[in-house]
Sequence to fold (95 residues):
Amino acid sequence: MSLTLEQVQRIALLARIEISEAEAQTTRGHLNGIFELIEQMQAVDTRGVEPMAHAQDLSQRLRADVVSEPDRRVAYQAVAPETEAGLYLVPKVIE
Fold:
């Protein structure tokens, strides 16, 4: 698939981008290059290839899930203007 100059100008119009004739020619070349690359990639036989989450076989190092800070909820709510049932009350801003 390759784009014509008219198609590039139509895309620019839809995107509300003003481009000159020279910019349209350059953009057409770039877009056609991208489409050629896509066609090359689609031509590769990928049957039997499992999808990957990452290009390298890596495992993420995880730390132990332990509490590292004391529970300060009571202290924080003690200085709050208004609380109820462990929640902070705030003024209504949307009617």
